[in-house]
Design a protein that fits this description.
This protein has about 100 residues and is mainly α. It folds into 2 domains: about 1-60, no CATH class; about 65-105, no CATH class. The protein has helices at about 30-40, 45-55, 65-85, 95-105; strands at about 5-10, 15, 20-25. A 3-stranded antiparallel sheet has the order 1-2-3, with no helix packed on it. The radius of gyration is 18 Å and the shape is extended.
């Protein structure tokens, strides 16, 4: 299920995955300068910056980290059991990384 904050970008137009609503984006001159500077950073630094920016806009529940870890472990176990029962398909890591590299080009 997509998160409410998930969007897809087309140029500078944003579309909501949930509602399909369209929103035109505009940036201030300082934001455009920051964007230009950020795009010139090495990949690792751009990635770190992107993670920090996304974290700054994501809604995060006030949950105990141990509770979150238990929930992820339970979900991983559920998925593994579904895989063993033949209800889920595995995708080889090489295929996943090849697809991601192709999308990067």
């Amino acid at each position: 299920m997509p998160l409410q904050s998930e969007v897809r970008f087309s140029g500078m137009t944003v579309y909501s995955k949930l509602t399909g609503a369209k929103c035109e984006l505009t940036m201030s001159a300082s934001a455009k300068t920051i964007e230009t500077d950020a795009l010139s950073l090495p990949l690792e630094e751009r990635t770190r910056l992107a993670v920090h920016l996304l974290e700054s806009i994501e809604e995060r529940p006030d949950a105990d980290p141990k509770q979150v870890e238990r929930a992820w472990l339970a979900e991983a176990g559920r998925r593994y059991q579904a895989y063993l029962r033949g209800e889920e398909n595995a995708i080889p890591a090489d295929d996943v990384f090849s697809e991601l590299r192709a999308e990067d080009r």
